[in-house]
Amino acid sequence: MAVVMCCLAPLARAQDEKIDLSSALAERSGAIQAETEEAGPGDNKRFTIRTDDNILPLELGDVYRNDQKTFFKVVEIRSKGSSGGIFVVERTAGGTDPDRKFNRVSGLGPVTIASRLTMLDIYLAGGVFMHPIAFLGFVTIILSLNCVWIYRRKAQCPQGFVDASWKALQSRDLAEFDRLAKSERGLFPAICRSLTDRWESSTVEDIEGRAESVASSHINRLRMPVKTLNLIAAAAPLLGLLGTIVGMVLVFEAVAGASGAAKAQALAAGIRVKLFCTAAALTVAIPALFAYFISNQFLGNLISRCELLTEQFLHQIKILKRKAGGPAGEAHEHAVQLTPRGEGSSAPGVATAITDRA
User: Fold this and answer.
1) Burial class of residue 306 in the structure, from the number of CB atoms within 10 Å of its CB (0-12 exposed, 13-18 middle, 19+ buried)
2) Which of 202, 230, 305, 346 has the fewest beta carbons closer than 10 A?
């Protein structure tokens, strides 16, 4: 009898352990079921997870939970290995996005998985307002490079043109001056073209007014890139703030059904993610502000240089205009004569003949 009792004792202990394990599993299953009901139904939205952890045991159907008690089911495994991989999860319960850490709820996968955030993940987590912010960032880069290119002195006020045109004015060769102005592009060549436009029928006041009008129009076009940079520097933070506010409203709605510590964790994680939008906007606005001030300084120096040269050239133009309108018959007086525009002229609209009047 004693021998029989000794044989039955291990069986009884194994049976008790089996009952205890079944009870523990039942309690765990009930707790998970309660947490799932508390989290609320999911929207079946899919997320791509990248990790550097060993996920060789991971299988389709494994269920994981983040710290905000949102449940995710593995629906696709794109790659897995001992050094990490990529898999896709589907949100089955709860309303928060995946966090950096996942805890296994059921299945044969790793107990914990730490996700790896890439720049693309941060961009997508920021919400729809990240797209216009990214567009503004791209525009900022293009405008900054454009300002570097067009605000060069060589592009708007080339020194070679200044020397050659000044030499032509001093020698009273308006035809050469006009030819040089028409062969160059930029702010100062445009002003020089206005100095000889309608020469014969224009007074000095007309020439000055026309030069001022042309300069103002050209400078307004040159200011467009810096004005746009200023607009981006002011608008990008507001756009990022709007994206964060809209994202926080969505987070509040998602955690409305949660309670206690779960609500606090979900709220903190949601706000952290949505602040990516504001951070991205400031990343665009700050360089745009610096580019605006630097480009505006370069443009201001360029305008000052052109104003100084224009004043010198206008003074010489006034001298030529006065001599062109001098009394006939004055001894050794040089007169500048302009012929009408015509086809076949080497410099259309302007031809000079400098003669000594007896």
Assistant:
1) buried
2) 346
